[in-house]
Amino acid sequence: MLIRKINDYVRPYKVFRDMRKNLWLKTWELETLQWEKFKTLLDHAYENVPFYRGLIDSAGIRPKDIKSYDDVCKIPTITKSQIIDNRQHLMAGNINLRNCVEYKTSGSTGKNLYGYLTKDDALHIRGSYERIRNENGFRMLRDKLLVISSPYRIPDRKEWYQYLGIRRIERLNVLEPLDKQIEILKRIKPDVIWGFPSAVKLLAKAVQEKNIKGILPRLIFTVSEVLDSETRNLINSVFSVELFDVYGAWETACMAWECDSHSGYHATMDTVLIEFLDEHGNKVKGGGRGRVVVTNLHSFAMPIIRYEIGDFAIPKYEECPCGRGGYLIERIEGRYNDMVKLSGNKLITPQALYTTMEHIIGISEFRIVQENEDKIIVYVVKTDECRDSIIVNEITRKLNRALGDNITIDTKFVESIPREPSGKLRSVISRV
Ligand SMILES: [Zn+2]
Question: CB count, 10 Å around CB of 342?
Fold first, then answer.
């Protein structure tokens, strides 16, 4: 009993220490580690998870047929709907769920995904985020961290050591009114902020406009939404920082992150296997846009193997000048559902639309909704400094130039842009 208790404290330390070391492995060492983990997970899933046994059998293969990265594509990919619909068959039969941690993700489709993690899976997921904060200068014991998140991620009570000023984590509900958020920000005065870019941007604007003094975070991390350059520049200049963007999801933990050389995103090769695929399921070349398909290498309670996460990204397949191993991802482009679809199968990414909307004066926030192939509605929360007609003309001119003249652009002014239940802002939605 006592030994188990001691192990409960020692194990996270060991896992975390090894995870930090992994970041400095050479690329070939990371590939070896990644491959070993992938094979272990695949064998486990085939032996113990009815869904994967059926899936792999239906493809006419066995785990032993998967001998190299080139063979991975023989395993069918899975979608979020498949995970939601087959939840019971996705649990590993050899793992006692009573010893597991349950998690929930809310999707833009309105359906929630419930998953399970073994304690060890959960350690790796938490570690995957904690180590990148530390790599970028977060002092785990001393820094006051403000996490901006959705309400259901906010725990009711603090741990005892947090009352002693150790590992101080404060949480801010992103769905609270902005005035209340600013009050919390002023009271907490965080050393480090972690949150959705849209939420940090609103706080940055408020700090700037209300000339609020004394908010001096040393580090800012943005996560879970596509970060556009205007938002990045605003946050950096208001808080005098160089923010770090992080790509992650609950089902997969941290998949990629920025270091201080800002040369792209480090793929976290020891916790996930990310593939970038074209429309035929082939690997895209460096610089090409691909669908992100991800395997969570620490998902033993409910394996996530070749999961179509719904995002597009551009891999770089180069190493970072910082000296850490592994390859870089050039850009995270956002969700497929959030891309504007034009005739001739042309896709316009949210990133491209953010760039188009940049520098239009008088816009505080916006949402672009593609209603059909020919019509786009832009919902705008305006600042006070500009006439409506000027904003409308500017939006129409810029979007028509980006998307073509045959698309009708309709601009509507609104009080606010509603957030997703998760608290995320979806700035682009396509109903096509
Ligand atoms: Zn780097």
Answer: 17
* pTM of the predicted structure, to 2 decimals: 0.87
Whether the Cβ atoms of residue 316 and residue 329 lie closer than 8 Å to each other: yes
- The amino acid occupying position 146 is L
CA distance 24 to 27: 9
Q: How far is the CA of 115 from the centre of ligand 1 (A)?
A: 31
Give the distance (Å) from ligand 1 centre to CA of residue 283. 23
Rounded distance from Cα 324 to ligand 1 centre (Å): 6
The token pair that represents 294 in the structure block? 């991800």
Angle at 324 between CA 323 and CA 327, to 5 degrees: 110
| Closest to 143 measured CA to CA, from 162, 124, 123 | 162
pLDDT digits (tens, 9 = 90+) for 313-357: 999 999 999 999 999 999 998 887 788 888 877 888 887 888 888
Cα of 256 vs centre of ligand 1, distance in Å, is 11
CA angle, 81 then 87 then 89, to 5°: 120
CA 262 / ligand 1 centre spacing (Å): 7
